[in-house]
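TA notes, week 10

Several of you asked for a full example with nothing omitted. So below is the full record: structure tokens for the whole chain, then the designed sequence directly under it. When grading your own attempts, check the secondary structure regions first.
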């Protein structure tokens, strides 16, 4: 294969590697998806439930623990601080020891940490347990994105990224209803409802981790549930797509720290993560501010998440079909900013919910499309470190934005106006995404020509 053909294939513009007789590439990918995606979806689903139930627990926990708005915001944020500190080490561990050991370890530890949240007794123990939960859960998202790059050829990644990320809006939607119901167990066996919330929603993660020790497969060559020919085609396709120029193959993986494109990617993810960190944490409190009964807060809080799942599905499929990433990403960021504008200006419950619907669609769509870029652009020996760095920088931003929002709310007693900060960040990173796209398009050896180009005839 010529250098030109190789670059085109890496970009996703050329057909996948010609399979051996009897191998149907589309069916192989579907088989892999059916085997692996339900598990990682369930894993992330419980991660988001255990991360997001704090908004419902706050309805009663804050007064019982004497937490001010600023204290609560700091507790939300400190999760992202320890989360950030352990993101890169966790991802490097997955690259070395495999997903089976790493993802199951994460699940078991965060499940235990969530259950221990039921025993906090004041601000200091609240901060400590939130920090522990962040450290335990670190690496789950970049780890799965790395795992997806080990199993799915470039042309399929946006849709399977989206399958994984569907867990976020679905989890928030389901958890909004379930958490509202659990909170009504207040007083059962002498425990307040917010303690039942942490106890009942932490246990499934532990069970998932134990199950994954038996169920997960680290890489295609170990997949006994695929035929030998299927394994050979899949691994060959992935290896060829992951090839980098000789200079990059010899480079140390941590050289990715000095890569300006990785820094631009991390900057874009800062905006997405600021949206994710604020999207649903305060929504129950905002809805309650309109004097909505507790039994209705859950269903109302679920609506934006369901809309986000639908919007992400349509965006990711469209991005894969046209083999275009950057403009889809920019459009989603601007759509999310529009949603936050509606939230910030809202004076009614209906407009607030509409704003959250738009913000959910934009943020989740941007998240699904964004991760295809580092997955495809980074050479194989740098992928783990690169994904870890991007997630670490974004998590630090999550710590900063949630702490700042809590501080401003404490001073102004106006939560919705705090989202002006998020709007500004989203607009800035939309410009950064455009700059990133221009840089990648100019790189002769980049594996992302199709990601910054126009539609490709005959693409999926």
């Amino acid at each position: 294969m010529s250098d030109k053909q190789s670059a085109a294939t890496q970009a996703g513009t050329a057909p996948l590697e010609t399979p051996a007789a009897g191998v149907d590439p589309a069916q192989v990918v579907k088989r892999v998806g059916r085997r692996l995606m339900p598990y990682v979806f369930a894993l992330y689903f419980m991660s988001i439930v255990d991360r997001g139930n704090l908004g419902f627990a706050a309805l009663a926990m804050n007064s019982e623990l004497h937490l001010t708005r600023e204290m609560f915001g700091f507790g939300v944020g400190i999760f992202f601080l320890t989360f950030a500190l352990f993101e890169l080490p966790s991802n490097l561990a997955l690259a070395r020891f495999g997903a089976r050991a790493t993802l199951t370890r994460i699940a078991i530890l965060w499940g235990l940490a969530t259950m221990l949240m039921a025993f906090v007794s004041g601000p200091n123990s609240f901060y400590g347990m939130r920090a522990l939960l962040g450290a335990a859960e670190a690496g789950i998202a970049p780890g799965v994105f790395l795992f997806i790059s080990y199993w799915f050829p470039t042309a399929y990644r946006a849709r399977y990224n989206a399958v994984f990320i569907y867990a976020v809006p679905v989890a928030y939607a389901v958890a909004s209803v379930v958490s509202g119901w659990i909170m009504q167990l207040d007083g059962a066996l002498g425990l307040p409802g917010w303690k039942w919330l942490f106890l009942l929603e932490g246990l499934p993660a532990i069970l998932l981790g134990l199950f994954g020790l038996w169920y997960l497969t680290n890489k295609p060559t170990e997949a006994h549930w695929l035929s030998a020919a299927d394994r050979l085609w899949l691994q060959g396709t992935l290896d060829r797509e992951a090839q980098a120029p000789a200079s990059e193959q010899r480079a140390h993986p941590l050289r990715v720290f000095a890569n300006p494109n990785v820094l631009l990617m991390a900057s874009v993810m800062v905006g997405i993560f600021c949206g994710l960190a604020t999207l649903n944490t305060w929504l129950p409190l905002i809805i309650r501010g309109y004097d909505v009964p507790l039994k209705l807060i859950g269903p109302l809080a679920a609506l934006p998440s369901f809309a986000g799942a639908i919007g992400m599905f349509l965006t990711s499929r469209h991005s894969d079909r046209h083999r275009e990433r950057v403009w889809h990403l920019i459009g989603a960021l601007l759509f999310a900013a529009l949603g936050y504008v509606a939230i910030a200006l809202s004076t009614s419950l209906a407009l607030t919910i509409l704003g959250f619907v738009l913000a959910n669609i934009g943020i989740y769509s941007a998240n699904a499309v964004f991760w295809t870029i580092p997955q495809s652009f980074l050479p194989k020996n740098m992928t783990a470190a690169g994904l870890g760095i991007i997630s670490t920088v974004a998590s630090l931003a999550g710590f900063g934005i949630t702490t700042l929002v809590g501080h401003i709310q404490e001073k102004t007693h106006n939560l919705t106006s705090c989202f002006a900060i998020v709007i500004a960040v989203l607009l800035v990173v939309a410009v950064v995404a455009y700059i990133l796209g221009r840089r990648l398009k100019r790189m002769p050896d980049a594996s992302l020509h199709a990601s910054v180009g126009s539609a490709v005839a005959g693409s999926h």
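The two ends are 23 Å apart (CA to CA). Use that as a sanity check on your answer.
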